[in-house]
Backbone:
């Protein structure tokens, strides 16, 4: 009998590491970047549900992130709703919009689904840009509030200020929650149906599975996570305009999932962190960034279609297998 | 009434460009099964190149376009050889993700080479005629005639030449075509050359009629695919009809509803078609 569950142990270590990380890097700039990376993990886990599990590449993730961001911002600023409430409401409303959007788009398969979702992202972007009476247009909305102070066990947690450690913890909670949700989905019946759709949709249908229902479920859940990421983003940055929610950003999210390893749970985490830190490390002009990202996407798809995480995992297994000692460490079970 | 006719005429001009874009997409999709999303950005590259030729060398529109089209064709063949061919036997989704990567690369390349400013290709076709109460801009006529000519030439190439026949053979049944001695690699290159040259022409016409700017290529690629969905997948007449329908409806929407939301309206039409008749206007049931 196994005493402990390896993935669980690994997750606990990862969370503890993530909590300790800001204390190791005291630079506020790194805390800022890591907070963004955590928000990106929520986004990429959502994208992975459709792209990695079901095999339908949606190019609207940034658009739904924008919907979540604007819904939450408008609810707090125009209607005085508390940020804690909108953190729950805004993702759900984004999911409701995704039901409307997903129904017609999921009638088409493969590439055409992607094209239709791309059209959605463009529509969302145009509306955010043009409907300036509500969204402030390109000039945007300044002074988006942070969540109010929270009193837990007698401690007061404030979320104000740049590179706030409590906001980092909030983003970490969201990232852990998103990853846990995806893990549950992956190991449930719905998750197995999703993988079946990716492998052979016609066969899955022939087996009597109503595939459209599962595709819609994945799409809506993916959008809820996008909405959550958008909400966290808006209240963290404090200034909202349509620019981060364009098609380019959706392509970056696809890159994050491909690079890390689509269809895995750790892949989107690795991908999201890489995509957040890469431009900071490379310090490129925007045109070079596009070329480099595009090149990485093309080269990764040709030579590394499974992504970094499965590559590292198989390298690790290969290294262990090639060491003769390790095989002797296991006690022989022969009676 | 005149206003209506005017908008329909304007719509036909832009619609004929949509047809050109969609034609380039439909040959690649119909024959190789690749949703070549980078087509729009390649078209913009061709448009910019036409602009550079016409301003630095002082060439007229059609001469610069004729120079830019082979460059685009070679670029298209390179893209096919280096990026798409390695994933020919992988799941289709991989080719599409590569198309997205190529889009980013081409958009970045355009930004780097030609800058972020909006560019309009100057032409001498500035006259406006009045015909039965509607104003016919010479430039729009030129655009329509050019598109019709190019569509006719490509249709002729596909239907009447030996290469065209092998292209269609691959589209119908790839394995049988290989057994009959058709060189599939050559066909792939030819298809990408034709498609990219058409794209460059479309980009040049867009540059003359509207403007070239970052991001325009992506929106044209989406509209190209919208035309395919409207017209019915893999149908050549469908691509022509779909392009014109999309152009006219967009123009009517801009004239009578709101010009800021004209793209939104054209995408809504696409979504409506998907809901009501997913096989498209000319597609088989």
Residues:
């Amino acid at each position: 009998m196994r005493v402990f569950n390896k993935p669980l142990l690994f997750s606990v270590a990862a969370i503890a590491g993530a909590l300790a990380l800001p204390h190791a890097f005291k630079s506020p700039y790194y805390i800022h970047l890591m907070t963004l990376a955590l928000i990106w993990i929520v986004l990429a886990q959502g994208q992975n549900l459709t792209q990695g599990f079901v095999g339908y590449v949606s190019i609207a993730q940034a658009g739904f992130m924008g919907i979540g961001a604007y819904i939450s911002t408008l609810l707090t600023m125009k209607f005085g709703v508390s940020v804690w409430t909108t953190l729950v409401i805004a993702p759900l409303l984004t999911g409701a919009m995704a039901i409307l959007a997903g129904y017609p788009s999921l009638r088409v398969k493969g590439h055409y689904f992607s094209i239709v979702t791309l059209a959605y992202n463009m529509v969302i972007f145009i509306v955010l840009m043009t409907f300036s009476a509500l969204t402030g247009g390109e000039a945007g909305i300044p002074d988006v509030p942070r969540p109010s102070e929270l009193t837990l066990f007698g401690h007061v947690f404030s979320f104000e200020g740049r590179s706030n450690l409590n906001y980092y913890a909030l983003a970490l909670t969201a990232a852990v929650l998103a990853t846990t949700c995806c893990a549950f989905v992956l190991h449930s019946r719905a998750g197995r149906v999703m993988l079946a759709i990716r492998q052979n949709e016609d066969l899955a249908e022939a087996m009597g599975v109503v595939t459209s229902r599962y595709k819609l479920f994945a799409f809506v859940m993916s959008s809820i996570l996008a909405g959550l990421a958008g909400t966290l983003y808006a209240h963290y940055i404090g200034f909202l305009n349509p620019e981060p929610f364009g098609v380019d950003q959706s392509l970056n999210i696809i890159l994050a999932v491909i690079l890390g390893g689509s269809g895995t749970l750790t892949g989107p985490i690795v991908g999201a962190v890489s995509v957040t830190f890469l431009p900071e490390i490379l310090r490129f002009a925007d045109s070079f960034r596009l070329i480099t990202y595009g090149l990485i996407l093309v080269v990764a798809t040709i030579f590394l279609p499974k992504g970094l995480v499965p590559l590292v995992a198989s390298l690790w297994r290969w290294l262990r297998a090639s060491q003769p000692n390790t095989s002797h460490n296991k006690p022989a079970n022969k009676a | 009434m005149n206003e209506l006719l005017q908008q329909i005429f304007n719509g036909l001009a832009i619609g004929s460009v949509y047809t050109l874009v969609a034609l380039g997409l439909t040959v690649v999709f119909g024959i190789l099964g690749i949703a070549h999303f980078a087509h729009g950005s390649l078209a913009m590259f061709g448009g910019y190149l036409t602009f550079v030729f016409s301003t630095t060398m002082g060439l007229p529109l059609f001469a610069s376009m004729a120079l830019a089209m082979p460059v685009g064709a070679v670029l298209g063949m390179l893209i096919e050889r280096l990026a798409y061919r390695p994933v020919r036997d992988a799941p289709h989704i991989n080719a599409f993700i590569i198309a997205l990567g190529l889009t980013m690369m081409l958009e970045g390349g355009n930004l780097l080479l030609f800058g972020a400013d909006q560019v309009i290709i100057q032409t001498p076709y500035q006259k406006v005629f009045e015909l039965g109460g509607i104003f016919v801009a010479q430039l729009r006529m030129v655009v329509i005639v050019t598109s019709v000519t190019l569509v006719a030439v490509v249709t002729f190439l596909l239907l009447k030449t030996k290469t065209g026949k092998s292209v269609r053979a691959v589209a119908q049944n790839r394995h049988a075509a290989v057994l009959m001695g058709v060189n599939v690699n050559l066909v792939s290159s030819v298809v990408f050359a034709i498609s990219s040259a058409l794209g460059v022409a479309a980009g040049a016409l867009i540059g003359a009629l509207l403007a070239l700017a970052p991001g325009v290529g992506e929106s044209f690629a989406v509209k190209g695919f919208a035309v395919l969905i409207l017209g019915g997948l893999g149908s050549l007449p469908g691509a022509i009809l779909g392009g014109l329908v999309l152009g006219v409806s967009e123009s009517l929407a801009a004239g009578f509803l709101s010009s800021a939301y004209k793209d939104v309206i054209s995408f809504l039409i696409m979504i409506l078609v998907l809901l009501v008749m997913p096989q498209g206007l000319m597609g088989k049931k």
The mean pLDDT of chain B is 89.
